[in-house]
Amino acid sequence: MWKSQSRLLHGLRVLRVQGYALDAHVCNMTKSSRNPQALCALLGVRHPIVQAGMVWCTGADLVVEVGRAGGLGTLGAGSMYPEELDAEIQKVKAQWSGSFAVNVPLLYPAVEAHMETIKKHKVPVVFTSAGSPRKWTGFLKSAGATVVHVVSSAVFAKKAEDAGVDAVVAEGFEAGGHNGREETTTMCLVPEVADAVSIPVIAAGGLHDARTMLAAFALGASGVQMGSRFVMTQENPAHQAFKQHIAEAKAGETRLMLKDVTPVRLLQGPEGSFYDQVAAAELAGKGPDALRALLGRGRAKLGMRDGDLMEGELEIGQVSALLKDWPATAALMENLVDDFRALGTVKMAPGFSWDALL
Amino acid sequence: MWKSQSRLLHGLRVLRVQGYALDAHVCNMTKSSRNPQALCALLGVRHPIVQAGMVWCTGADLVVEVGRAGGLGTLGAGSMYPEELDAEIQKVKAQWSGSFAVNVPLLYPAVEAHMETIKKHKVPVVFTSAGSPRKWTGFLKSAGATVVHVVSSAVFAKKAEDAGVDAVVAEGFEAGGHNGREETTTMCLVPEVADAVSIPVIAAGGLHDARTMLAAFALGASGVQMGSRFVMTQENPAHQAFKQHIAEAKAGETRLMLKDVTPVRLLQGPEGSFYDQVAAAELAGKGPDALRALLGRGRAKLGMRDGDLMEGELEIGQVSALLKDWPATAALMENLVDDFRALGTVKMAPGFSWDALL
Lengths: 358, 358
Hints:
The structure is a homodimer.
Chain A: H1 2-26, H2 36-43, E1 49-51, H3 60-68, E2 74-76, H4 82-95, E3 101-105, H5 111-120, E4 125-129, H6 134-142, E5 146-151, H7 154-162, E6 167-171, E7 177-178, H8 186-196, E8 201-204, H9 210-218, E9 223-226, H10 228-231, H11 240-247, E10 254-257, E11 264-267, H12 274-283, H13 288-295, H14 299-304, H15 329-343
Parallel strand pairs in A: 1-9, 2-3, 3-4, 4-5, 5-6, 6-8, 8-9
Antiparallel strand pairs in A: 7-11, 10-11
Helix pairs in contact in A: 3-4, 7-8, 9-15, 12-13
């Protein structure tokens, strides 16, 4: 077995070298910054796999485990008070000297405090979302951070590139949590964004295994971001009842809701749960004010961290239908990388190289 | 150039042979019927590319051109009277002796007449949709047809397999026209369907070029079906004003509407158009009866065939945002195949072989 695998890998390397000439012929505009290795260098990691900076579902232990396994772990600052973010960053740094990231929704009320914390701790990579990247990109780059902005359209991707970010996450309609109004799916979004910008594109939405990783690379992505898959790990601080509920979720049980307030993909709870209340209000044509009153405050923590499946907000992607277990993060990462390598695919879109992946 | 390409192709063949051993090791349950070559044999074509059997946007000329270029052309019977389907099949057979298909929505009122026409003309491949595959699969198979059922969930895929169909189309949320209530995107749907059944899976929704084809194969598909891409061809009988409107469409301008009647993805028209009227009615919480009254009859033909962008129904996929031209069908097919070959990817998911693609 080893012999045939070794012959195969040798073959791949030879082919890769021969392949470059063909690439150049196929596509004059070879976007060299596009290969996964270049993205890995930007992010300071071995593998182009990003654990998303989700609200209520990240923490130092998860981030450290992802980092040790060669990926990029991310703290989701959107659900942390400034002093909590500070403490979590310190916990990460006490255990892990490698790269990690913080995700900051730019509409967060205490965004200034978060940015100062990020600067103070010299956080290597910052993901910004839900707001214009113009205001903070310069600040973050002078603080030495790599800046990645999350977008749901090619128009916003171009604006982010113009604002000077280093890369974008193109997040499709199927992703969990907050999402774009355009409803563009990963399959349609990634090629359009890849055509629109020259910086690396990290695909998100529906990605959870080697197959979907490969599909993302086929579409023109240089890296992948997974959210739901990392909620379903032992080290994730999400409530066990939420994880159990995700393991039982079926296709069609998540829905993009509250579009007239702020679009968010939610998972059904038991009958009569918050999800059903929102669905009924929307079906009855209730306006933004009524929906905001129904939403109230604190429901995301209630659902995802405290495990209240009835009254809490349960944010998760469509891919929840395919997630049945919550392995140790280290085992998940090892399986993702091993399964991907086992696919043995060697050549993809022009400009793509496998160096960071094989 | 030719020399290096020839060396590359030789390399691919060598690798492919070595690859099989590795495949068997990686995945014990090798679904051998899953490779694109097996699907091509089932469909009677050279390339695993299906032109979807859309309402109002198919015809004999399109079907013949797709067939001549090695793909599977399909007549969409859902918008034809029985005598029209008969005439179109005769037109196809007068010009083309190879394989082709008819798509029959099983809720069509005159479904019996269509089925008799299909039997009379010995149509090689039949796609069924919008209804249970139990009733007609036996009839069609005794008439000698390969039967493919269109599904929007893994549950329906399994039911179709149990009903004896030869393959399924897994059509994601991003696809144009009528669509599932689950809203599952191609990225999430294809892996789930591929895991659920042993028969070949044809991916649909968002597919339009070599990149998206490759992504579909990565997800576990054995073939691809494209709809919107084939609306945008010279031979397509869609109205020129509709094609021009699609070429100008941007991301976010299609939406899955009329979910409480029969979900359909529509493209915005000019301000105040039918799309806006439906959006306003849905926002106001109007029920199914009011929506059915607004829909009325004949709007699909009015929009797509007669080019009335204001009052007609404009059915097209999200991928309309990426379609800018309407080439000759032969040129489109040649580009798809050439671009795909140029990617030069050799090994994919277990059980996958490139024989039908290289």
